[in-house]
Every structure is written in C-alpha cells, then in structure tokens.
Design a protein that fits this description.
This protein has about 80 residues and is an all-alpha fold. The chain is about 90% helix and about 0% strand. The chain is built from three helices and no strands. The longest helix is centred in the last third of the chain and has 31 residues. The N and C termini lie far apart (about 50 Å).
C-alpha cells in the first residue's frame, strides 16, 4: 500500500472520530476539513488527479455553504 494513501486514510479516520466527538458545529469544521483533505489526498494517491482537482474546487464551495448554514442556524436560535 502506498504511504500517501495510508496517511490520507488515517487522516480520514481521525477526522471522522473528531467530528463525532464534537458538539458545537463550529468546532466540527476543522475535523470535517481533515476528512475532506484526506479523501482528496487518497483520490490523488490513486492517480485520479482530475477528480482530485474537481474535489478541491467543490470542497471550497461546500465549506462556504456550510459556514452560511451555520450563520443562518445561529440567527434562528437567537430570534427564537
């Protein structure tokens, strides 16, 4: 097994465990980013660089959408 693939899968597992253990949605953001980075690195380790490039672009958009979602949730909680 490729060392890059192994380390990326370890990053995915550690990020998943950290995501489950966190309660606050803002604290989950770094661990979700660790999972996404590990997945992109695993895809790149297998040689699918075009898929990894598309995943990087979509990851940025997904992170922005997740932050907007968190802001909306906080606004709803404050108004209720």
């Amino acid at each position: 097994m490729n060392w890059l693939l192994l380390t990326s899968l370890i990053a995915c597992v550690l990020g998943s465990i950290a995501t489950v253990l966190r309660r606050d949605p803002l604290q989950k953001l770094p661990s979700i980013a660790l999972v996404k980075s590990g997945m992109i690195c695993a895809v790149a380790a297998e040689g699918y660089l075009d898929v990894a490039a598309a995943g990087m672009a979509l990851e940025a958009v997904g992170t922005i959408m997740f932050c907007v979602y968190l802001i909306r949730i906080e606004e709803v909680r404050r108004s209720a």
